[in-house]
Amino acid sequence: MRLRALRSTATALAAVCAFCPLYAAQRVTLRNGFALDCARSETIGSKVRLYMAAANANYLEVDASAILNVETVPDLPQAIAATKFPTASTAPTAPTKAELREMLAHAGAAHDIDTDLLASVMKAESGGNVRAVSHAGARGLMQLMPQTASAMGVQDAFRPEQNIAGGSAYLDQLLNRYGDNIALALAAYNAGPAAVDHYHGIPPYRETRAYVARVIREFNRRKQMTLTAQAR
User: Fold this and answer.
1) Which residues are identified as catalytic?
2) Fold annotation for 11-81
3) Degrees (nearest 5) of the Cα angle 123, 125, 127?
4) How far apart are CA 177 and CA 62, in angstroms?
5) Range list for CATH 2.30.30 in the chain
């Protein structure tokens, strides 16, 4: 398999997402690649206030120029009613380490991505927790956002084999987009390609830069272990 060459306010937004309203009426997409579901928005001069609930004063204020798009979305209860979530009887059990390695190897072969890189991304994203859910709504082993999972053909993000296949397909798209530059692809996986494109490189977000460094460090550790084992 060809080894892809390693070439030379995200935290704040994630915290805000944890307090998004139960009944969202608007989805506000920011130019840095993030999207927030809010009850309503109000423009005051050059600022826009994004209210977390329709009837209170809890809001996030951003520059109007930072907003890329505002769209109306269904009330969350309606969206939930139309979504099939795993029940207790159908919820997937955690795969064994051997099963995970097999899934990662299969996905790596399908997309020509080094298995150690996929394993490093999975570790940074979820620590191997099949049921992991982030404040922003990312799910499963490789923390797929619902829209990303849908675009990658993932029907149930909590199914390990589907999640790994979808995350690998998405990482493959990003590697192709950035000419096999792993650092940029990882930054886009974490912060969104819009942010990478905007900054023409790794965005100056502490969380994203730490994430890229963490994945690459784990990737290098795994490759070194493989080389050491082969030398014995």
Assistant:
1) 125
2) SH3 type barrels. (2.30.30)
3) 40
4) 29
5) 11-81
- Number of neighbouring beta carbons within 10 Å of residue 198: 14
Cα angle 79, 84, 86 (rounded to 5 degrees) comes to: 135
Structure-token pair, residue 131: 């049921």
Residue 135: strand, helix, or coil = coil
Please give the CATH number for the structural domain made up of 85-231: 1.10.530.10
Q: Are 25 and 50 in contact (CB under 8 A)?
A: no
CATH 1.10.530.10 range(s) for the chain read 85-231
- As beta bridge partners, residue 187 has none
pTM of the model as a whole: 0.63
Instruction: Average the pLDDT over 9-18 and give the result.
Output: 36
Alpha carbon dihedral 128, 6, 167, 105, in 10-degree steps, equals -70
Residue 56 is predicted with a pLDDT of: 54
- d(C-alpha 51, C-alpha 47), whole Å: 13
| Residue length of the chain | 232
